[in-house]
Amino acid sequence: MIQDYSTALMTDMYEYTMLDAALKDGTANRKCVFEVFTRHLPLGRRYGVVAGTGRILDALEHFHLNEADLRFLSDRGIVSAETIKWLENFTFTGTIKGYREGEMFFPNSPVLEVEGTFGECTLLETLLLSILNYDSAVASAASRMVSAAGDRPCMDMGSRRTNESSAIAAARAAVVGGFQGTSNLRAAQLYGLNVIGTSAHCFTLVHDSERDAFVSQVKAMGVNTTLLVDTYNIENAIKTAVEVAGPELGCVRIDSGDLAALAQRVRNQLDTLGAKNTKITVTNDLDEYALASLQSAPVDSYGVGTMLVTGSGAPTCAMVYKLTEREGENGVMVPVAKHSKNKATTPGRKLAFRSYEYGLADAEHVVCGSEEQLARFQPEEDWKDLMVNYMNHGEADTQYQGSDAIVNARNHRAQSLAELPITAQSLMKGDPSIPTKIDLL
Predict the structure, then answer these.
(1) What is the rounded distance in angstroms from the CA atom of residue 317 to the CA atom of residue 109?
(2) What's the pLDDT tens digit per position in 115-142?
(3) Residue 4, pLDDT score
(4) Residue 283 sits in a domain of what CATH number?
(5) Domain that residue 406 falls in
(6) Dihedral (C-alpha) 213, 215, 221, 225: value to the nearest 10 degrees?
(7) Which has more confidence, 5 or 274?
(8) Which keywords appear in this protein's UniProt record, sorted alphabetically (predicted)?
(9) Which of 71, 133, 254, 418 could serve as a FRET partner for 337 with CA atoms 20 to 30 Å apart?
């Protein structure tokens, strides 16, 4: 169990007031199709990474209102007594499909498509967007960091830089984005993630000397531990660390200063002392640009915090949830769209494919039309179908939940990124690495 509370009130009030009005006028039972997409990527970004769909399936398992929830809605006058009765046994019975977790997305990619009645679909809007917008922002930032780090592993250390719930979500999304683990124990417990951690500066400071702190840590954790060496003087700390742990010391961590220059000096000192296999990890407000600048430094791994959990300057993906098709009075499905200035939407259901030339993606193809038109559509031979079925009439496909699904998503991200033009991995600002072509049937 991922959580022991209802997710049904993790929403905005107007979802329930719309439901109340729609139940009264009869439109709540109309079949509808909603779509999650973003109109643009964060400025200069070349791609985004889908994350959070597994958490959505987890959250929908708990999308039921208990007596206290219903009493709250009733006491506040948010919905009528008739709607309270409708909500008593509510469970989502619709169908959800979308991009695989770990897949690349671009402007107007149909990241998620939700089909059901208006009443049940409208209640999901805020929950779906809050999960997808945050998790995808973290995964997208993580992916850029992993590219910048090359073959050196990155670990999440951002829990103290965000709220306690976001810390857990961020740890999971970071792994989808390519990170190898987290310092957050709750996230590791819930999702089966690799977990890291040894000591902070306060552990050194509480002891009478740095040597006493190192002796204590090595005695408790063994010589393969990671010793933090920048509390006082790094050169003295390295000498003491090797004296205490011996040349088989596992790792040292540097958390301040000019990390590249310090890493070079530390590497040379460790080698001189015979600790040639001792690894070096660095932390201290790293982002993808800092990681790229450390490529030539003798660093073995990175711990990333603040910039990871805040999306490295893009804490949301600006995803929206829009109605694209609804049942008319005659029972026939009708495509619908907004025409608002700068906020227009594309009507109809969607299919999504990616085309390739010489093994590299060259375009995203979003095909729009009715259910019958899409069923007849035949993509080009080399086009890859980007959408999977997450839920069928309320039944979730469990292969997209759990720890194995997270590892699969991380692997899928690496494969999908490798199929994009190499410019996708550039940290310079630019256009999306491939164009999105929209075809109306």
Answers:
(1) 12
(2) 999 999 999 999 999 999 999 999 999 9
(3) 61
(4) 3.20.20.70
(5) 13-138+314-345+387-418
(6) 80
(7) 274
(8) Glycosyltransferase, Ligase, Phosphoprotein, Pyridine nucleotide biosynthesis, Transferase
(9) 133
Q: Is the domain of 266 the same as that of 321?
A: no
pLDDT score, position 1:
38
250 and 333 both lie in a single domain: no
Number of compact structural domains in the chain: 2
SS3 100: coil
Q: Which token pair is 343? A: 């906020």
Q: Please, are residues 312 and 288 in contact by the beta-carbon 8 Å criterion? A: yes
Whether 127 and 212 map to the same domain: the answer is no
In a domain, 181, yes or no: no
Taking the whole predicted model, whether its pTM rises above 0.90 is answered as yes
Assess whether pLDDT exceeds 90 at residue 2.
Answer: no
Within a domain: 426: no
Is there a single domain that holds both residue 328 and residue 270?
A: no
Segment 305-352, tens digit of pLDDT: 999 999 999 999 999 999 999 999 999 999 998 888 888 899 999 999
Q: Are residues 132 and 233 in the same domain?
A: no
